[in-house]
Amino acid sequence: MQEQFLSKSNVVDNVAEYTIAEISRRVKDTVEENFGRVRVRGEVARVSRPRSGHLYLTFKQDSHSLDAVIWRSTAQRLPKLPEEGIEYLATGKLTTFSGNSRYQMIVERIERAGKGALLEKLEELKAKLLNEGLFEDSRKKPLPVLPEVIGVVTSPTGSVIRDILHRLRDRFPRRVLVWPVAVQGESCAKEVAAAIQGFNGLEAAKGLPRPDLIIIARGGGSVEDLWGFNEEVVSRAVFRSSIPVISAVGHETDTTLIDYVADVRAPTPTAAAEMAVPVRLDIAQKVISLSARISASATRNIARKKQRLEDLARLLPKTSTLVATSAQRLDFATSRLSNSVHAALQVRRLSVARLQGGLRPSRSTQEARRKFDRLSDRLGTNFSEAYRRHRYRYRAVAPHLNLRLLERSIRENSRRIGEVSSIAIRAFSTKVIAKRAKVENLDRLRNSLGYRQTLQRGFTVIRTREEVVKSKKIASSATDLEIEFYDGRLDVRRI
User: Fold this and answer.
1) Can you list the positions of beta strands (E) in 98-145?
2) Which tens digits make up the pLDDT trace of 369-383?
């Protein structure tokens, strides 16, 4: 019996020992870890609100109950406190309260169970549209940077449209087209869908431009008030819109289906106006900044190119080296040209000197002239001799000859003499004209290649006391030089 007792004692001693605080903490961690966030449906059986401002209530379902607490900060935001005997849908997290060893729910959001049915319907429609790809980011269109015309789908009498127009005027005034719709009630969904389709169909209309951007806006409200923007017809109209759409329905905490389908979701209507247009001063500042960046970039690029050009220039040979050979050739050619011009000038000068002494006939001309003189003498002699013979014969046979025949013979001989004389004179004149043209050509050549004319074209003649300088060697060894220009001469002396 003693051994058995000792065995039980050992078992008891091996059981882990906890403090009450440790057990409370472990239970709290286990509950919060496994029930981090839950949604509970139940009837409120008891509601208590002490002076602390916290709200304590109990949810019951059949024979089960669950204690809950709504902290004061959350309770102050409730539009209406929960009432006993009404079924509610509460969202929050489970935790434990170590003061009386019980667990409870901390409620973060609570609404009537009727709304819960709507939310269940919303989740089903959301899952359907998600599977069809209406929420895909790849199909969302980018907003225009600065739209010319903005279409607004909202109530024309509410504060929403005034807030949007005011914000647009402050940032960047644009043309706004308002399509009035009912923003709650049974007709809300159909009117909003028709407005979206109407804005997209304004291409064929006259007088109204097609918007570059559509804003769908409404203020905050309950789930029932915002339900028109959860309808499938509205989501599909937004999906089919070829114009980018901004959804601005409700407050930041409100979410509707068109928020997922729209290209951009804005937390408030005012924020939608801010997303639609930029601030004019910001654009001006950005333009100035970009201009400065472009100018700086261009300056840096020019500096880089300049440095690169200088680096490449260092690798190139000097200009003097490149042109040295050509310069030497030019010197040689200039020297030869000068000598040639001088020699040609001397020859032409002698020719001109001969011509200036008088126009001397050539040998052939002189021979022709001698022949002409001989013919003239012979003609004169023959004429005299014939005249004497005819005169003698006339005197001898005068009684027997007709005087008219004699006169005709004399006239015929005179005519022949005149023709021969004219031919000789024309031949001599032709020779004279040819020689004169040749002299004029030589004179023109003298003017173009002459000594003075060459100097007027920019050439100079360099002389020493003994001769004309024809090479660099002679010029470098001479002490006194004379340089002749077209307008005078200049003496140069080496120091």
Assistant:
1) 102-112
2) 676 666 656 655 655
